[in-house]
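[agent] plan:
  1. take the single chain provided in the ticket
  2. run structure prediction with default settings
  3. attach structure tokens to the ticket
  4. add a short note for the reviewer (M.T.)
[agent] executing step 1
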Amino acid sequence: MSTSESVSDKNRCPWAIKSDLERIYHDQEWGLPRMGDAGQFEFLVLESAQAGLSWATILRKREGYRRAFAGFDPVKVAMFTEEDVRRLLADESIVRNRKKIEAAIHNARLFLEVAAKHGSFSRYIWRFVEGRPIVNAWREMSEIPATTPLSDKVAREFKGMGFKFLGSTVLYAHMQATGMVNDHLTQCFRHAECQHHFQDMPPLHSFLKETFLPER
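[agent] step 2 finished; step 3 output follows
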């Protein structure tokens, strides 16, 4: 079977068929559970940069962000100075918005504080879903919400800690991207694959659930 045939024979979420870049991202990444802090930080940077823009725009600039933001290493980003801000504002490979750039640096410092407090940032954020993805059963794109009561709760907690450019809409998109929520349409081939991926993962998800048992 040719590549073109294998691509066209699969049912996908409608947004994924607009470009090859979006299709590859959808087929290989979107909705896969990310338990590591590196992936969590990368998507917090990218999702916060998206505000007011299309995700396709951010995907096209993703490698530029990777270079500009030290491989998405929060330790290195947290050490950025005003000189780095000026460097980033001159970098055409990223979104050159001072507030977003400064927010990414500010958020990196808070990210490290959360990680230090909880053992890892992932342990902290995955507790909101008790260590396992919420699996939805949407059949139409129009059914998928932009925010939920859960993303509202996460956003309030983030705001209370001082995070910037991470409101409820951005955080729900983050939860979708990092597999905390499976919002692939039920007829999309990735809906089942993402579920199976989580089930086949090492027992880290069980550890996360145990770590955040409610206090008695």
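[agent] step 4 note for reviewer: The first helix runs from residue 3 to 8.
[agent] ticket updated
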